[in-house]
């Protein structure tokens, strides 16, 4: 049986004018700023007007550690949102925007798949409403003003060897990771080493996604550390006087983007911080607004629960005063088999033993999520090759961990296929058993926070950090940053820092390579192992097959 591609399904969508989608939420037309017929930004004035409303219930969708077999976290998020609307709940979906780099590389888009998608798929995966361009421009403005400040006399006495602020571009371009800037003579400034990250790794992106309003945004931008002086004192963005103009560039980007699912249900798609080195969730302003105008909000966090859910709980929820009522943990039979040692080429063959052997990865995520005081249900994202015996093996394993696994067929059947999952989520939420709390307090020392995550979430024996790193953390505590949460930057493929170590490893160590202070975003980044903030393209990038067909339609996006 042949199935339509995601883009073919998206193209056949019976989209409604975005004003009708706004009507479902009670958003007046004058507060929708349309970008074409099928997407709009929601005005800050309207967002301000609903702050007195009672909050709806927040449901987080997370997953096991990603494998090449695919898990379908966004697809499940969309499918669950549609399923909740199908059973009569007023539900909204909140997901991240897609980055151009991975789209043209190998990861593909970020709008769901099959019959559980957010549309317009092509625009969402390309330029959308220009938010990422605005972030790139604001970041670049600060880069230019910083080098300009040094050129015109360096009043702040910046040590050019200690400029922290790198440049960004929203493309996977390994050639830009490390560069030399300002070559070509006196008129071009003072030569120094520099480099580029991908836009989603910018602290400006993290700030946009954690700021509660424009005033908060401007303050956080001003708080960013851009360089150090010879005496090691920090130079802030506000010292360069860039935060006001940066806020002007980000004014529209701060407003959430309203779009719709294939079933015409409302979705906010807004922001997209890198899930390795930032917190990997959509914007606080989108999530908090959605909670004010709907009864259920389904959102997702990047990568597996050891990264995404941990940061969602310890950073986003802590900073925004949010508390999830339930967590949906996405797993696939295929991924369990890969964790159980089966090669990707052999995933189509039934192998119950391999499924069972791969389940400890799932079991550990269940335990970790429960440690935050939130009930969890496992969603088995169904593939047509899954056999009844394999599915039952997952269900039996999950039952042994005191929770339930529900098969969801949203990819194939849309909300009809996710109805059972939606009913189970409602049952859990209305049961009211959630008692959410982050796993460490604000006043714990920074290094103890790192150890808490490494030992409780990753099940590591120890954290390896040399004196220089420990001294740096102590210095930041003395400077008043000790109450910040920590943002762990590590591989998404394993609980450990070794991407090849699947399953549920124990007895490993977490080596800390460096620590970075994101003073504006409000967290300390702890880099463990090798983490790329500028990805490269694969040998055969997806861009090679993306083109316009004779009808002027885009082909090759997936």
TrEMBL record:
Pfam families: FTHFS. GO terms for molecular function: ATP binding; formate-tetrahydrofolate ligase activity. InterPro entries: Formate_THF_ligase, Formate_THF_ligase_CS, P-loop_NTPase. CDD domains: FTHFS (cd00477). ATP binds at residues 67-74. Keywords: ATP-binding, Ligase, Nucleotide-binding, One-carbon metabolism. Its EC number is 6.3.4.3. GO terms for biological process: tetrahydrofolate interconversion. It is an enzyme of class 6 (ligase). It catalyses: (6S)-5,6,7,8-tetrahydrofolate + formate + ATP = (6R)-10-formyltetrahydrofolate + ADP + phosphate. Pathway: One-carbon metabolism; tetrahydrofolate interconversion. SUPFAM superfamilies: P-loop containing nucleoside triphosphate hydrolases. Belongs to the formate--tetrahydrofolate ligase family. NCBIfam families: PRK13505.1. This is Formate--tetrahydrofolate ligase. It comes from Roseovarius albus. The lineage of its organism: Bacteria, Pseudomonadati, Pseudomonadota, Alphaproteobacteria, Rhodobacterales. The gene is fhs.
